[in-house]
Amino acid sequence: MSPCHAPISWDALVGYWAKETSPQDLDALELHLMSCAECSETSARVAAITEAFRGMIPAVIDSARLAEILFPRGVDIVLHRLGGLDLKNARAVRMRVLREGTGDTLLDLEDVPFDRDRGELLVACQQHFSEFPHDVLFEVLAQQRSGAVEHVRYPVPHRFES
Questions:
Q1: 62 φ, ψ to 5°?
Q2: Taking the complete model, does pTM exceed 0.70, yes or no?
């Protein structure tokens, strides 16, 4: 591979993959990428990073963004961290996956693993869950040593890229 005499900057490649390249610069940039192995290789590294970020769900979202969450094609698992639970004295935790619109039970899992100190459950939604209804509600029931039951619901609508 011969060295490039006019390499495209990292920032320009990030802009390209973020779809922020101006229309007047786009043709020249793409022509350079097609004819320059060194810049194409760098572009592929930038693409791997930007495309991974594009598929990620933000750490904090509002209800409008929640309705837009998309399970990207090529992603096998989306991890949900269900927190805010008082699990310090929990004896057992049960989780039900419900259809929010009807209340129908899709899954009923007894004695699920949980993080007592962090007060959370980790739920791994998998691509084959696309067969389920998409208005999903996670219901967590924590049986405390005192006999009390803490009951928390987490609406998590799922949309899958086709």
A1: -100, 175
A2: no
Contact 66, 137 (CB under 8 A): no
If residue 64 lies in a helix (H) or strand (E), which one and from where to where?
Answer: helix 63-66
| 97 in Cβ contact with 129 (< 8 Å) | no
Looking at per-residue pLDDT, the higher value among 132 and 123 belongs to 123
| Residue among 1, 2, 6 at smallest CA distance from 29 | 6
Q: What DSSP character marks residue 58?
A: P
**Digit-coded pLDDT (tens) for 3-35:** 899 999 988 998 898 888 999 999 999 999 999
Task: Name the token pair of 8.
Answer: 């495209």
Residue 144, judged by CB atoms within 10 A of its CB (0-12, 13-18, 19+), counts as middle
